[in-house]
Fold this sequence. Notes:
Helix 2 runs antiparallel to helix 6 and helix 8 (182-193) runs parallel beside helix 10. The chain is 78% helix and 0% strand. The chain has helices spanning 2-60, 66-75, 80-91, 97-117, 120-127, 142-166, 172-179, 182-193, 200-218, 239-267, 275-296, 300-307, 317-343, 346-368, 374-414. By secondary structure, it is mainly alpha-helical. It has one domain. It is globular and about 65 Å long. It starts with a helix and ends with a helix. GO terms for molecular function: enzyme regulator activity. The chain crosses the membrane at residues 35-57, 69-90, 144-165, 177-194, 203-219, 239-259, 280-301, 321-340, 347-367, 373-395.
Amino acid sequence: MGPRRTTSGGLLRSRSPTLAAADAAHREARRKYTYAAFFLVVSLVSFTVQTELAAYIQHDLGWDKAYCMLYLTHGSWVLLWPLQLLVLRLRRREQSWRRFWEGHVRTLRGIALVVETRDVKAGAGAAAGLGGGLLEYGHSPWPYLARTTVFVTTALTVAGLSWYLAVSMTTPSDLTAIYNCSAFFAYAFSVPLLKERLRADKMLAVGVAIVGVLVVAYGDGGGSSSSSSSDDGGDVIDPGTRLAGNLIIGAGSVLYGLYEVLYKRFACPPDGTNATKGVIFANTFGSLIGAFTLFVLWIPIPILHVLGWETFEMPTGQTAWLLFISVIMNMMFSGSFLVLISLTSPVLSSVAALLTIFIVAIVDWFLTGTPLSAAAVFGGLLIIGAFGMLSWSTWREMNEEERRKQVDLSGDEDD
Length: 415
């Protein structure tokens, strides 16, 4: 009987770390999804406001400066880190500034090391001030972040500029449908770059989402005619111009999907990183994108002015105030979107962004009094359904990853 008791106790003791690991994995996955849900709501609201304001500024107020607006909106991301720093400081008011600052820099350096090496344990030691690994040799992750900022920002800028270039060359339906196919390209790039497995449920969800976009764009016949009016008024869009616009926005769709995956692969902590640290670093990297935009991407503005392609003109009065609000809304959307990608995946984030199509249509209904068409409602429901499918799939993957991480850590402790 004695040996049996010992064996039974040993079995209970051997199982308890596994149960504890599963419980910890569930809590961490739930925390990630709670953060992701919050930032999803912020991104949807801020994008809707920004979209309505941008359309009003460009079309009704006549301040149609594509590159300048792109420069201001992306440049505003530089505020993400200072605002985050203020929030963190208010939460730790009891600490001296020097202690708080040193701890924050140490944390950022540790997370940046995780991003570069993809080694969660090395970064944890660095954040705790324990050193080890590359840090023992004075290694700095900042050069890596500088290089990553350059190529990620370049992909983002070219993708964003394609939208502004194509907006007057093709129909709104084509623009919406083609650009939002970036969800498909995000999934396509995720397979080789993120080593993501091809899953039937994810492929089905992405397909349903794209079908939903096509239904919204073309279901009421809005894109059936090549003689659709351009955004400038009643001018007819030439078929050749429309084709060129579609090719430009198609390239932009590919690049935007690539930008999301590049950001996830090279500028986000790997799976298994604490959710709070993921939020902190996402906003920090967003500020790096904003800084690169402000200090480097101003160069085309005077060139465009001299060539006469886009005359520089300072906004004044109502235009200036509304542009300021639009820029702030874009900063909130972009920061939230970066956090969403960091905590979940580029595919889920892309499909989540498609929800804004339906939300903007609803807001337009309230603003203009024009009811939603049956196609808009049906397409919106398809997008919502696809987002639900992806959310469930991502939730299962996050639970599996956290459980695997916790089991690995408990195994290391036993050793």
